[in-house]
Amino acid sequence: MQDIAWYASIVPMLVISLSFVFVVSLSGQTAQVETAAQERLRKTLFLAFLVVGVPLTAHTLAELPYGRPEAWAGPALTIDAVGRQWEWSLSRDSVKVGEPVEFRVTSADVNHGFAIYDSAMRVVAQTQAMPGYVNVLRHRFAEPGTYRVLCLEYCGLAHHAMAAELRVLPR
Ligand code: CUA
After folding, report:
1. 16 CA distance to ligand 1 centroid (A)?
2. String of b and e for 27-60 (b: at least 16 CB within 10 Å)?
3. Cα 134 to ligand 1 centroid, rounded to whole Å
4. Considering only CA atoms, which residue is closest to atom 1 of ligand 1?
5. Which of 155, 145, 149 is nearest to 137 (CA)?
6. Tens digits of per-residue pLDDT, 76-118?
7. How many whole angstroms separate alpha carbon 142 and alpha carbon 119?
8. Quick check: pTM over 0.85?
């Protein structure tokens, strides 16, 4: 998944960068009047964008916001998570595989990033920990193991030391 996201970002970035280089290389030349063929191509491309791009955009936005509460079946186990410089406190440190868990995340001081990593150090869920506000993060752990909660937002000298453990037990 990370690889797909990487290529889905880097390829369009390369294409956009190259098109900037192309435009810069044309600067200084005298502009030419568009030919009839060029005008047809421009209009066709714009029409194709309208026909493909607009419905595609509408389709990808239709599911927002992701993880709507009504899609959440079963009573959730609630874990209160509070971030502070520089530690996490969790009201529980173990859950069971497949159990719907609702993290209620806040901060006692500054903004922190609440990120849950699996044993391979991949982020499985994340949200912001903000003072004066509770963010709800719902997650079902698919695999047993020891997960780590780390801070994803720089919050001062010992930002890197903000870590907690969450054990996900087999059913
Ligand atoms: Cu908390 Cu970085």
Report:
1. 34
2. eeeeeeeeeeeeeeeeeeeeeeeeeeeeeeeeee
3. 16
4. 112
5. 149
6. 799 999 999 999 999 999 999 988 999 999 999 999 999 999 9
7. 12
8. no
Dihedral, CA of residue 6, residue 10, residue 13 and residue 14, to nearest 10: -170
Whole-number Å distance, alpha carbon 167 to ligand 1 midpoint, is 21
**Cβ-based neighbours of 130, under 8 Å, separated by 6 or more:** 106, 107, 111
Ligand 1 neighbours, Cβ below 6 Å, are 83, 112, 151, 153-155, 159, 162
Residue in the block written with tokens 């003072």: 131
Beta bridge partners of residue 89, listed in sequence order: 82
If you measure from the C-alpha of residue 13 to the centroid of ligand 1, how many angstroms do you get, rounded to a whole number?
A: 30
- Give the strand pairing for 135-140 and 123-129: unpaired
